[in-house]
Specification:
147 residues; alpha+beta; Translation Initiation Factor IF3; 5 strands
Length: 147
């Protein structure tokens, strides 16, 4: 490729860089959440009753949805899918201190040849313990009378 001399050295590389930038676009947004549970968990039960938990460690999961020619979608980019993928290998029930990132990528955006969106969750996996069985009340001391 030959460019006019006034464009300076490496003009072809500059033009190629500009064209490459015009052929793809991306954006991302990030937020934080205190607690995310599996879809099958009962969140109100987790919040209204006392539960102990064990920390498993840091995990990350990603879920993506793809679009071909802006009319043929496939995949699932939902947050619950990303949470399931993050927890599936760890045996955890929930994520603490979660960072949720949603991103969108497009290639040749004017014609929307291919685009995809991904949701990534990262946090600390925990395993929630079930409640211990109720303890029987201690027997009353001999010789004491009820009030």
């Amino acid at each position: 490729m030959r460019c006019p001399a006034r464009w300076g050295r490496h003009a072809a590389a500059k033009v190629a860089g500009i064209v490459a930038c015009l052929l793809q676009v991306a954006c991302a947004s990030t937020g934080t959440v205190g607690l995310l549970t599996r879809s099958l968990a009962n969140p109100s039960d987790l919040l209204t009753q006392v539960h102990t938990y064990h920390v498993i460690g840091p995990v990350e999961g990603t879920a993506c949805r793809y679009f071909a020619l802006a009319v043929a979608p496939w995949g699932d980019s939902s947050t619950p899918t990303a949470v399931e993928r993050a927890l599936s290998g760890s045996g955890g029930d929930a994520l603490l201190n979660v960072t949720v990132t949603s991103s969108l990528y497009g290639f040749i955006p004017y014609w929307n040849i291919l685009s995809f969106t991904c949701t990534t969750v990262a946090g600390t996996a925990i395993r929630i313990d079930s409640l211990p069985p109720p303890q029987p009340s201690p027997p009353e001391a001999a010789g004491s009378s009820p009030p």
